[in-house]
Amino acid sequence: MTDYGEEMSEQRKQRQKKQMRAYYLANQEYFQAYQHDYRIHNAAHVKERNKAYYLANHEKILSYNTEYQAAHPEMKLLAARTHYWSHKEQINEWQCTKVKCGCGGKYTFANKAQHFKSQKHGRYIAA
Ligand SMILES: [Zn+2]
User: Fold this and answer.
1) How many domains does the chain have?
2) Residue 29 resides in a domain
3) pLDDT tens string 17-59
């Protein structure tokens, strides 16, 4: 007798799950906008929650990441390329940004290391 009742409740649960999924899919834009707004208006709370989750599970997360990277070495390169192509304009803009140095010279972020090796900057550091 109890089996029948559990079976019914299981069927009901499955039906309810399907209905909830259909409702979510029908109103997906609304839910996504709500979640986006929630994250913006409760940024501090979300950050704390994520930090607590990370601290509680960081060993599990790190071991998962290590295993994933070992199993999918091509994904790292793909992610880097995807990031570059989707942020190409921002990256190029950032690289071409000119910065005044304490030595009196100027450098772009793309040439920062080269400037730090220059004679002019070397004299400034030595002085
Ligand atoms: Zn300099």
Assistant:
1) 2
2) yes
3) 999 999 999 999 999 999 999 999 999 999 999 999 999 999 9
Residue 40 placed within a domain? yes
Give ion ligand 1 contacts, CB < 5 A.
Answer: 101, 103, 105, 121
Cα(117) to centroid of ligand 1, in Å?
Answer: 9
Q: How far is the CA of 88 from the centre of ligand 1 (A)?
A: 27
Range of the domain at 119: 94-127
Question: Model pTM greater than 0.85?
Answer: no
Cα separation, 12 vs 10, whole angstroms: 5
